[in-house]
Amino acid sequence: MKLDGFIEAMLLGISELKESQKKTDEQMRRTDTKLDRIGKQLANLGLVKEDVRRYAEKAGLYVMTQTDEGGAALLNRDDFEPKEFS
Questions:
Q1: How far apart are CA 55 and CA 50, in angstroms?
Q2: C-alpha 2: how far from its chain's center?
Q3: pLDDT on residue 81
Q4: In contact, 73 and 65? CB cutoff 8 Å
Q5: How many angstroms separate the CA atoms of 40 and 48, rounded?
Q6: Phi then psi for 34, rounded to 5 degrees?
Q7: Long-range pairs for 19-26: beta carbons < 8 A, 24 or more residues apart
Q8: DSSP notation for 17-81
Q9: pLDDT at 17
């Protein structure tokens, strides 16, 4: 009888762990989605890493950011040459 109770408790524990893992997986998915959205919002504000700015310049793209006053400013170097796309 004690063994039956132990097995039942163990199976219940396993079931609870599986349910907990499902909740954790769902929370991780929601967190990843939120982080992706925040990353896109930061990129839209022009808050880009230096290596991203350099990559964009090498590709011939303008790099803009938002100013404190709500305007926009170019971050490209003085010797930047934009690429013409046709």
A1: 9
A2: 50
A3: 86
A4: yes
A5: 10
A6: -65, -40
A7: none
A8: HHHHHHHHHHHHHHHHHHHHHHHHHHHHTT---HHHHHHHHHTT---EEE-TTS-EEE---TT--
A9: 94
How many whole angstroms from its chain centre is CA 38?
6
The answer, yes or no, to whether residue 22 has pLDDT greater than 70, is yes
Q: Over the stretch 28-71, which tens digit does the pLDDT of each residue have?
A: 889 888 877 776 776 666 666 677 778 888 888 888 877 778 78
Q: Are 23 and 16 in contact (CB under 8 A)?
A: no
**Which single residue is written with the structure tokens 């709500």?**
70
d(CA 33, CA 29): 6
d(CA 24, CA 18): 10
What would the mean pLDDT of 7-14 be, rounded to a whole number? Answer: 92
Q: Read off the pLDDT band of 27 (50, 70, 90).
A: very high
